[in-house]
Write a structure and sequence with these properties.
Distance between the termini: 29 Å
CATH class of the largest domain: Alpha Beta
Order of helices and strands: HHEEHHEHH
Radius of gyration: 20 Å
Number of helices: 6
CATH architecture of the largest domain: 2-Layer Sandwich
Shape: elongated
CATH topology of the largest domain: GMP Synthetase, Chain A, domain 3
CATH superfamily of the largest domain: DnaA, N-terminal domain
Length: about 150
């Protein structure tokens, strides 16, 4: 599936993400997680919103990561209310699993990551996506440069 173009303008990144089948599912899932996170933040006391995050949602199960054990205990206490909140907002939730997952402290500097070479399969995928774009599209040029790296 390719992006529709109108009047000669190149497609936007958002349009490409929404129309490419394999990326569209990922984009939809990320949107669902963001929606669940917003609902979680509205349901929690304000002091907990910065130390709790929705990690995943699958088959009616929401996985929530808490920054520490004390936060996890507090969230577990309000799980029944969270299930009801999600259901009232139209999300089918049968289970909420709260796990302790320490979060990176704010203000810490990222350690520069080692550059990992791009594999052949990834290069083919980048090249394939680039070929679907107009020849002069900046995204196409960027994808081609990325695929050409060793």
């Amino acid at each position: 599936m390719t992006a529709k173009r109108n009047s000669g303008t190149p497609p936007t990144v958002t349009t490409l993400l929404e129309t490419e089948a394999h990326v569209a599912r990922l984009t939809a899932h990320a949107g669902r997680l963001l929606q669940l996170q917003r609902q979680l933040e509205l349901a929690l006391p304000r002091q907990l919103t910065k130390v709790v995050r929705v990690a995943n949602y699958r088959l009616g199960k929401v996985i929530i990561h808490a920054a520490n054990g004390a936060v996890a205990v507090k969230v577990r206490q309000i799980v029944p209310a969270l299930v009801e909140t999600y259901r009232q907002n139209g999300t089918e939730v049968n289970e909420i699993d709260v796990k302790v997952q320490p979060m990176r402290p704010t203000g810490t500097k990222d350690v520069p990551a080692q550059q990992v070479p791009i594999g052949d399969k990834a290069k083919r995928g980048l090249t394939s996506l680039a070929q679907k774009l107009p020849a002069d599209a900046p995204l196409r040029l960027a994808l081609e440069r990325l695929a050409a790296k060793d």
